[in-house]
Specification:
about 150 residues
Length: about 150
């Protein structure tokens, strides 16, 4: 996936990836799927899944660092604040000819509109959580999460 993916493409991903439910077992299944994908690709990532304020899944694979956990927190906060993917938030600012860092008025040490955090949205309930991957270039972090959600949804 290119960093030049359009706002419309990113919005379509979110519309397509609304789930019918998201339980503790679902979080484990999705997280385990992401770990398997990352191991197959030898991707040095950290993975985090939350529902509300509760962390339901976390894994750090070889090559990841504590910095990845800091990126996870910053990207997750963007999803929690805006209700959409961190990559989409950044793309919307770029489409306006600016950047999130320049124009959001939010502390970049707290918020990062970089790819890799995707909302967990449940039909009839809206956004209830977030799944995050950190450790690859932002478009690849985002693509890995989208691929896993597509597989998970079936």
């Amino acid at each position: 996936m290119s960093a030049a993916v359009t706002v419309e493409e990113l919005e379509a991903q979110e519309e397509r990836l609304v789930l019918d439910h998201f339980t503790y077992d679902d979080a484990w299944e999705l997280g385990s799927m992401l770990v398997k994908m990352a191991r197959e690709r030898q991707a040095p990532v950290a993975i985090d899944i939350r529902r509300g304020g509760q962390q339901l899944f976390h894994a750090a694979l070889p090559g990841s660092t504590p910095d990845n956990d800091a990126w996870i927190d910053r990207k997750r906060r963007v999803v929690e604040r805006y209700g959409c993917a961190s990559f989409l938030v950044g793309a919307r600012y770029r489409a306006k000819g600016t950047t999130f860092e320049e124009s959001s008025r939010l502390d970049p040490d707290t918020y990062a509109a970089h790819g890799g955090a995707f909302p967990v949205a449940v039909r009839g309930a809206g956004v209830i959580g977030c799944v995050v991957v950190s450790g690859l270039p932002q478009a690849e972090d985002h693509a890995m999460v989208v691929e896993a959600l597509e597989r998970f949804k079936g």
